[in-house]
Amino acid sequence: MTNVQEAQPRIPVICVDPSSVAGAELFDPNSWFGHSKGVVQSCWTEYSVLHHCVGQLSAMCGNADKLCAKNVETLQQQWQLAKFDLGKVECFAQQPDLHIRIEAFFSGVKSLLDLVVQLLSTEQVVAVAIDGFHRDQSGYGGRVLNALKNNAVKAKKDTAARLDALISDHKKVWVDQVILARDQLIHPVKGMHQLMFHLEFAQKNGSLVFIKAHPPEIDSKPIDQFAQNTLVHLLYKLYIYNIFGILPPRKEVDMPKRIHNVKLSEREKEELEKYVKQGKKSARAINRARVLLLANEEKSDGTCCVLLAFEPHTGFRYVQVRERRTAVDYAQFMKYFVELHYHAAECIRLVQDNLNTHTPGSFYEVLPPEEAFNLAQKFELHYTPKKGSWLNMAEIEFSALSKQCLDRRIPDIETLEKETLAWAEKRNKKCKTVNWKFTKDNAREKLKNKYRMHSN
Q: Which domains does the chain have, with CATH numbers?
């Protein structure tokens, strides 16, 4: 008898769409186990399709006049045969591709909401099976909120209570609005306004003159803008889950892609130099070219934490002493120093390490969703390499703090706070900054054994 050797399975090689890359940054199945792994894999797929769909909607709405050219021509020919009163009619252009993408968008949002809440069961936050963000008598998502209130696992009741409050807030801000719009797609009148281009005409010299093709609107917003806003809200909803450990920390790309990604434009450099030459007060009022570096360090026996933000261009640092370094502490620190010192800034480039609380989602622990979202928009986030968190000038400031202020036993947190604030005020008066000489080439050489790099 001849032994037939079984063929080895071939290794799949997939060339992915950029939308899949965006999904992979949020959902990494390799960080999960058991049933959660499959749920997260499905979340990745669904978010990638949704991301792609929103991009296509934006492209179609931006090209509306061209897409509707045939529809416009047909109506103008009809006008020549039998004129009609423009004051008594509304003209729409049906585009099946647009209809398909709008349906796909709403379906994608609903599917992703259904998938994400399944993690409440698979990660044992609640003791009942949740298979979707379904309705009950109290409204859409009521079954999820009911489970968080009444069926939370004993060890995770605090987590369930915070999730209940946050999901309720998001329902008010955007979820209910999106689901209502989805339900109205089948409405004979409202659905037409939400699925078709609205054609604007004018009568001139006996001719029907085309003015513009307007995208479908939902709550007075063009569908492409509505879809983009929904995607942003959904993104920060996922960050909220990250806070409570239901989703893993967002996967960061390797160091070579992050090592030199903080750069000022020539105009920003000139503007910054102008303000700095005018003195510290003027430099503090600058609206652009902000680069801050954030770090934290535990002192003594771990009973307290020093948080520090440092602006190297002006030699300003801001410190706080806190008992812990939770998401709440991080969010309150960020809120306070922005309100005190950077409320007029249009953009703040923030360099920080990969601590799991260092995400915009932490703001939702402290602030209402809309306020948290607005605070998050202030920041352009940059992360140090995972294996090189010392690549941050704020760490040099901590070294100075340790040598100049914390080189002795501090008896209590009140004394520590007093000493660190005095240290920061003294250095701020002198505008002490850092002469950073570690270039991207130095980093590549120093970290070449920790990160894979391709040579030419």
A: 18-243 (no CATH), 255-446 (3.30.420.10)
